[in-house]
Give the backbone structure.
Amino acid sequence: MGDDLSGDDAKALAGSLRRLLQLTATLVEEGGEAAPLMERVRGHLGCELARVLSVSTRFEVWEHVNVQRGADAYLAAHSPDAEWFGVSGQHRGHEDILGTLLAARHGQAYGLGSADYATVAAGPAETVDVVQLGLVATTAPDGTPVFLGVRGPTEFGPPTCRLEVLAADRAAARAVGAEVERLVREHDGFRGKVLSFGWSEHRGNELLTFLPRPTLEADAVVLPDGVLETIEQHVVGIAEHSERLLAAGQHLKRGLLLHGPPGTGKTHTVRYLMSRLRDTTVIVLTGASLRLISQAAGLARRLQPSMVVVEDVDLVAMDRGVPGAGTNPLLFALLEAMDGIGADADVTFVLTTNRADDLERALADRPGRVDLAVEVPRPDADGRRRLIELYGRGVDLRADLGPVVEATEGVTASFIKELLRRAVLDAVRANPDVAPVVGDELADVARAMADERGSLTGVLLGGSEGPRSGPLASPVAHPGVAVGHGTMSYRTT
């Protein structure tokens, strides 16, 4: 026994072991837990598992809901009565579906079970059940029997969703996979929605989530005369006449830059554009989610007409000439994303910044990236009066607005919104049993807030800047920045 086996003996032993394994697999299939599972596969495909091949396609994890919609559409056309089934047993979540079936065939404690389901978001307040791990018997367009399988993201695997087609014929499997992919795009649940990369309380996840679409009328956006109309012409006007523009050989892709001090209404203006473009897909990027600009651009191209909103773009697009700015890889990703979408794509890039002077010249000055730049300034006297009336709509506003307008010179829209909130809170505290009434004490609240102008609270709320001679005197204009007036710059591309 201590001597080495000869070549012939080793071959004979290997052959015996192989036959033993084959016999074991057969016994498992015929009498073990895997028997019903193997019989289901063999019975539909008409061949042994050893002849079955898999054609799989990976999708981003947030596409799981769309993969399910595509699979459901395919089954509705080819196997409307088909039912999903799954694989029972522990530790079955770490292999592809074919690998799991092969493991079951070779003695792993897997058997026929129910499909696993997960709940995913399909809208701001809507969820759907999707197959997390399951198979369904169907046919290829030419009638060849196949299995359609879906495996969602696993705890230890890559954050992807996988579509698998099992068949004895590769061409049939590829045809089914291609048709399901087409249906995934045809029935895309993201189209026309407002999406954001990042966590959200609106039934979101850690990557892509749905946001409610704002509902705003034009009178809720207080900007200097002509500014909102110019923005609408550039963004909405092109969307409304896209077919005629393309027929005339004109490009549709456009870029809008909204700049101005914090709290003046840049984001509010963007929300108005979302409200106007009811059928447009909107993708919002802000903060840490800016790293996903490439994925956002890909979605925008696929789901056009679409709008990509990049808030606080200076976080990634600071001019490389500014001391300490360095090189930001996300800047190049942003530039590539804006350039990579074809000129005939109905896609709008809307960028916002509080620091227009620090923006990278390659972004701000390159035709085809930003072709309209609009300053959203601190409101003038007429704007402040309109803002006070706007934010006071829900209360009995009896104040003489003249002193309030004078006392709020140089502040932002956010400041005035907080002013009304504080005044209403004071009224509720004073008379908790009656509807709030805001009278001439509103001017006193404005003066009290003016006393906070040197504090952090005043700065964060957009209080006026610079030396003052009155309660809230006009801010000092910085060189090259217009204060109190809307400025617009145009480029032709």
Observations:
- Residues 178 and 331 are 35 Å apart (CA to CA).
- The mean pLDDT is 82.
